[in-house]
Amino acid sequence: MSRTILVFYGSYRRDRQGIKLARWIVEALAARGDRAELVDAKAVDLPMLDRRHSDYGEGEAPAAMDALATAIAAADGFVFVTGEYNGGLQPGLKNLVDHYLPQFAWRPAAIASYSAGPFAGVRAATAWRTTLGAMGMVVTSTPLSLARIGSAFDADGRPAGEDGTRIAKAFPRFADDLCWWVNAARAQRAADGPPF
User: One GO term of the cellular component aspect (predicted)?
Assistant: First the structure.
């Protein structure tokens, strides 16, 4: 059975590199038979958080915010693709997800981190584990971490070089872990609904 997985990406930078990883993950999930969709915070372009989606009355939320709420609630699982900004969370991605809460609950999330240097965004990934768990998501135990992203993809967006080869080899286990939790959570929601 096909799964619907949203892949979130949040950089607003002019020469953003992480979009290569996000797009490749969407393609790689689709190649496995899942319905994967990129949610690019820059393209969605929500304002700085003032009111969450749940703070609006029925039909009062901005159209882009409302459409994304529907997509999140219909998804089976999520991938968060995050760079590391000064040792912490990407502000564009954090702002995007903070507009929502109940839509994410009782679904699994996986984290793919990256950096321009050798540490592959692991501090951002660690921070996201705490944030996503607090939002009601089960965070999978298999990370996907990419160092030196600037040289990890070729001109066609395919993994290249040592770091690209490493990420391509690591991806199947990352996706298998996420999809196992997606299947488990979907079956549990169907059997018993939300826990409270």
Answer: cytosol
d(CA 147, CA 21): 11
Q: 80: part of which helix (H) or strand (E)? A: strand 77-83
Give the residue from 174, 66, 82 showing the smallest Cα distance to 130: 82
Alpha carbons 148 and 156: distance in angstroms, whole number: 17
User: How many Å apart are CA 168 and CA 2, to the nearest integer?
Assistant: 22
Q: What is the pLDDT of residues 41-65, one digit of tens each?
A: 999 999 999 999 999 999 999 999 9
Reported as a pLDDT band with limits 50, 70 and 90, residue 1 is confident
CATH architecture of 4-192: 3-Layer(aba) Sandwich (3.40)
The pTM of this model reads: 0.95
The ranges assigned to domains in the chain are 4-192
